[in-house]
Description:
Two copies of one chain form a homodimer.
Chain A: H1 4-21, H2 23-30, H3 35-38, H4 41-61, H5 71-89, H6 91-95, H7 102-113, H8 129-152, H9 154-157, H10 180-204, H11 209-220, H12 243-254, H13 258-267, H14 272-275, H15 277-300, H16 306-321, H17 336-345, H18 361-379, E1 388-389, E2 392-393, H19 396-422, H20 427-438, H21 446-449, H22 460-474, H23 478-481, H24 486-489
Antiparallel strand pairs in A: 1-2
The structure holds potassium ion (2 copies).
One potassium ion is lined by residues 115-117, 222-224, 323-325, 440-442 of chain B.
Amino acid sequence: MLNFRPVLLVTGALVAALGVMMLIPMFADLIATAEVHRADWSAFAIGASASVLIGGGAAAASWGRIETISLREGFLLTSASWLAIVVFSAIPLAIGEMELSYTDAFFEAMSGITTTGSTVVSGLDDAPPGFLLWRSMLQWFGGVGVIIMAFAVLPALKIGGMQIFKNEAWDTSEKFIANAAQYSLGLSGIYVFFTIACFIALWGFGMPAFDALNHALTAISTGGFSTKDASVGAFLTVGRAPLDLVITVFMVIGSLPFGIFLIVIMRGAWKRLFTDSQIRFFALTILVLTLAVMVDVIEAFGHLGLFTAFRMAIFNVVSILTGTGYATTDYDDWGPFAIAFFFCIMFVGGCAGSTSCGMKIFRFQVALAALVLYARRLAHPNGVFVARYNGHPLTNEVFVSVLSFFFVYFAIFATLAVFLSGLGLDTLTAISSAGTAVANVGPGLGDIVGPAGNFATLPDAAKWAMAAGMLLGRLEFFTVLVLFSPAFWRG
Amino acid sequence: MLNFRPVLLVTGALVAALGVMMLIPMFADLIATAEVHRADWSAFAIGASASVLIGGGAAAASWGRIETISLREGFLLTSASWLAIVVFSAIPLAIGEMELSYTDAFFEAMSGITTTGSTVVSGLDDAPPGFLLWRSMLQWFGGVGVIIMAFAVLPALKIGGMQIFKNEAWDTSEKFIANAAQYSLGLSGIYVFFTIACFIALWGFGMPAFDALNHALTAISTGGFSTKDASVGAFLTVGRAPLDLVITVFMVIGSLPFGIFLIVIMRGAWKRLFTDSQIRFFALTILVLTLAVMVDVIEAFGHLGLFTAFRMAIFNVVSILTGTGYATTDYDDWGPFAIAFFFCIMFVGGCAGSTSCGMKIFRFQVALAALVLYARRLAHPNGVFVARYNGHPLTNEVFVSVLSFFFVYFAIFATLAVFLSGLGLDTLTAISSAGTAVANVGPGLGDIVGPAGNFATLPDAAKWAMAAGMLLGRLEFFTVLVLFSPAFWRG
Ligand SMILES: [K+]
Ligand SMILES: [K+]
């Protein structure tokens, strides 16, 4: 039997906590330097009240000790809590000074929480501070939520091969962290540490404090929301420090497996950072892709210096590969190779156990291992071959999980692209919007939704469909899709 | 140890046989009504001589009894023989009256043999009959080659889950056909029968005999080459019989599993046509997709009658779904939904064991079975669930094979699309050319390579890359890719 009480209790408590967090942007608005922005505080006051009352009420109504949470309740809780948080966090965006429709506010909140970073807002440069801060905070919450989910929830639910990380630190024989709560606290601590480090670095290199705070929140979470319509490009003026390189470092950190950081800190096992198979493959991927883009931009803009080409290449490669989605230039203008290239790499993503999005590096490694194993068995039918990942043997069950993940990924992406086309979006806009949503990247391609545009002009149905795609992508599809299976609700 | 002798022997014999076949278009040119076309006969005479001499020479040099062919030799033979046939069948196209470059001739021959149907030729309406007939014959040979390969080769090589068809008729306890040669003869007989039926139907309904012959050859093989620049649309004039519906029937027949036809004929088991899981799913797919397109064209062109909408919809759905690629209208003009829709369904393909291309219906069924199984096991971790296909249980090995196939499909498609973009093709042209090549469909999308255009203007490198994509797609990737694995050549 499904027990809804723990689902309601946890979801309600999370919504109430979200309400309390709304007090931060409320204060940001109250102390705004521009008189015109201060009125925006009331939107957060109302949002906070609604969230605390309704969330707290739901939690109180279902109060009691939670003995166990079954697998099925785990699935339900994951989807329900993410969705409830989006519904409530959209309130202050809808009723505030920016006067978004609820559809737009929901899109923006979903884009925030899922760390997608697609926006329907233009005129960010003149938006109230509370509004900007709330968007950044949503991405930051989403980022840490995903890190904890990748350790506490996805391996248990066997989502897309994540079971291979089940024993990674969490269940080691040494049991160096006793339980899930402590473990989550450790991960959150590391996350906070890197956020502060990013803020200090950006601020120290000359970014205004408020912008530095916001970009710290959205860089470590590979979210990509900015405080400027021109995104990070707005801060790159001549004579300034290379803030893009600072941000690149923190986008990479946000895309590394946080569980490894924890092992490093608890055990002092620094070597793990350089021996972990996923980290090595990720580093190699960045290197190869950056070189490819360097060659392309040097060919396209002959007069570039090598260092400038490197900066342009690595920033955009890391921004799109990790699914952050900041822009410094509009690579739509770099020609057809760049467009197709960036479209493809946005699906790749960073490491599992990080804030980053996309298919994740380890899944490509497992898929490649499956192919190599296949070729070996074929050439030598009587040989005995075993594929390994980080030293652990890979079973057929893991291969099926990982490869089904790719299949579902493409199926959902294609369905969303066809649906968006059916709403009248041109082919490039439809395909890139679908891709950027499920991969939680942010910008699309083309004049309308590319790095230089935004999603404001899309029809409402497209915004709802994209929001659904973002949630599916962020929760790695199966977590949500299994709720639509009749078998789930039976028995 | 790899033994190259049988590979050389069979490949040489096939090339020699191809040379003999070139005598047919040679005679077609010799009896051409237009004086100007008769000179084209010499191209085929030269091509025939070269093929018979070199192919026959290779076969003679490696003559001897073939005791066994190992798995690895099977892989090598498959790739080598397809490639050799393309190399030689391109000769008369290159040196004939149409004056194609060898790159163009190779592209056209590869497009023919792989039943892709992309063309670099415009001015088909005035081309020599031998030239047109040879193109059609190449597709026809390719079609029957694929049917035989799907039974005799792919299941043994365990390509992309094809092992589930290993016991389907071929190895039944009844052993109603004693050996592979007889079995191949049976399949070829059915193929010839349907080709003749298609010719009679088209001719009887008013298509000129030569055009009817060519379209019979390219419809049953789901190849899609036509004798007119306007493709099948050229034969659809007011007051004429609905030749498009006749062709639709034979494209569907060409996409059904020929092994089932053989069972039907040998055992009189007519019911199998209606109980076979793959055929049922394929029929349902056609039905649903046709209805979707009917709704779209009725919305787009309000004044259409229901029957006209049905004809437009079912012809184009079947043509693209089965990977035939004939056109009656330019669906590029139907708006963004049609473009995205046709782009997606071109990857689907028909049934395994047919002449059709794409990913094949059974792979989608197996992938769906894997997902349903996953959901069930999740909801009831202690339950015992088994997925079945046509009554046979599906193992994890089959799931891995099928799902890796999808993964490789997308990886090769994306790589080819990025490569074509790097050659300067615009995004839509690059993506659709890559897709149409690996899925062996034929037409791309957009002004350049869409149903109304052709591939003549693409750079040479793009033509070679697309030709490679066609061969990979036709041989179901793994057959070729395994040759690039170091393990294959070891030991
Ligand atoms: K993002
Ligand atoms: K075709």
